[in-house]
Specification:
413 residues, globular, mainly beta, 8-stranded parallel beta sheet, 2 helices, 31 strands, 17-stranded parallel beta sheet
Length: 413
């Protein structure tokens, strides 16, 4: 076990302290500044949404048991999710194309309704789909769709698109399977932060509010770049704090965040502070997918979070790289980096392969500092990930040795 993990994050505490101290300051200030603000009592969630169990993780020899059950996909109903990027004209498809991709999708994780958009970006031609048109549409919020012509189009952004927190509660960006958003290897693509005063404070508890609820679907994110970010670092393509967040039928190629540093991660996506600890959903999506298409960051080559639960369904993580090093607190979680306290990582119908880490967790780094978090893996393949060490339970997964890891109908080797 790495020494800094036993110190509840040790080397990582500086970045975490900065994040949570800013949240605390925001909340404290808002209690005075927004004394008249109404509470979010009308949340659509029932209960805490916490489905954690202390299942027996089985042996550490490789493949899991065969007890059956859908594990991470149980819920109040399921929905079909037609994949508009299953056969794209360029790059790997969205989602896991392999036989294990058979998991049902909970209703709340499915495609959002875009039948009544607030803004349609473009007027039917590629030339009309400009950076400014998209950035302005995101600032207006609501449902956003595109009309850029019948062929695939790439919009290279001149500015990061930023969510204004009062423009929801539902914010949906739907590319229809034809739109690629590019950071041009110079900037992050999309940013949402309920605790950023510049984007508007809408409650007195910015670190735990049920809105905005952001969905990105049927989109490709390429060449996002957040290495020049200092305050809100990580998240090369997308950075999210607060509200709710889900990703459906989307692809993430060649996005990057800072190469070094503790708790700096999420080559593609970085997330904090989800409402009532409800999970981020990632459905039918691809991170990398082919050599040369992977995402990179100091930690969490694909995705990274602190104190956030994830439910990942029928998705593919491959050729992502945690490029930091143990000496600077980075290099962990080739595909996935989860740090925090009570959180759940649920993976179903997903393949994680050919990712690489320089320090720990070539596939997954999952550290629950108070030893209350758990991992569920069903109908998934985690194989051929490279590098790293500290694998107390399963190969390619770094975790405390008392972390429950329930594995069913899966291969880990």
């Amino acid at each position: 076990m790495p020494a800094w993990v036993t110190r509840s994050g040790g080397m990582m505490i500086e970045s975490r302290t900065r994040v949570w101290s800013s949240v605390t300051a925001c909340t404290f200030a808002l209690l005075t500044y927004l004394a008249g603000c109404s509470d979010d009592s009308s949340s659509g969630a029932s209960g805490s949404g916490d489905s954690r169990t202390s299942s027996n993780g089985g042996g550490a020899s490789g493949s899991g048991g065969a007890s059956g059950g859908s594990g991470s996909t149980s819920g109040s109903g399921t929905v079909p999710v037609p994949d508009t990027l299953k056969n794209p004209t360029d790059g790997p498809p969205a989602g896991n194309p392999n036989p294990e991709s058979t998991c049902s999708v909970p209703t709340e994780a499915g495609l959002a309704d875009v039948s009544s958009p607030r803004t349609v970006v473009g007027t039917g031609t590629p030339e009309s789909c400009t950076s400014k048109a998209f950035v302005d549409a995101v600032a207006k919020g609501g449902v956003i769709t595109f009309s850029c012509g019948p062929n695939p189009v790439t919009i290279t952004l001149d500015d990061t698109a930023k969510i204004v927190n009062s423009t929801g509660p539902e914010i949906v960006i739907d590319g229809g399977g034809l739109v690629t958003l590019s950071g041009g290897s110079t900037r992050r693509i999309l940013y949402m932060n309920t605790c950023d005063e510049a984007q508007g404070w809408t409650t007195s508890h910015c670190d735990n509010q049920d809105h905005p609820r952001l969905t990105v679907q049927n989109l490709t994110f390429v060449d996002g770049h957040s290495k020049n970010e200092t305050e809100y670092d990580g998240g090369g393509a997308i950075w999210v704090r607060g509200g709710r967040f889900r990703v459906v039928n989307s692809r993430f190629f060649h996005n990057a965040c800072a190469d070094t540093g503790p708790d700096v991660g999420g080559g593609a996506i970085r997330v904090f502070s989800q409402y009532d600890n409800l999970p981020v959903y990632v459905v039918n999506s691809t991170f990398g997918g082919k050599d040369g298409y992977g995402n990179t960051g100091s930690g969490g080559g694909g995705i990274s979070s602190i104190g956030v639960s994830w439910t990942i369904i029928n998705s593919l993580f491959s050729y992502n790289h945690a490029v930091g090093h143990e000496t600077d607190g980075g290099g962990s979680g080739g595909a996935i980096y989860n740090d925090g306290n009570k959180m759940t990582l649920s993976i179903c119908g997903t393949r994680i392969e050919h990712n690489e880490a320089n320090a720990f967790g070539s596939a997954i780094f999952f550290v629950s500092n108070d030893h209350t978090g758990d991992v569920k893996i069903d109908r998934s393949n985690i194989t051929n990930n490279i590098g790293g060490s500290w694998y107390p339970t399963y190969p390619q997964i770094s975790n405390h040795d008392d972390t429950p890891i329930a594995v069913t109908n899966s291969t880990i080797q």
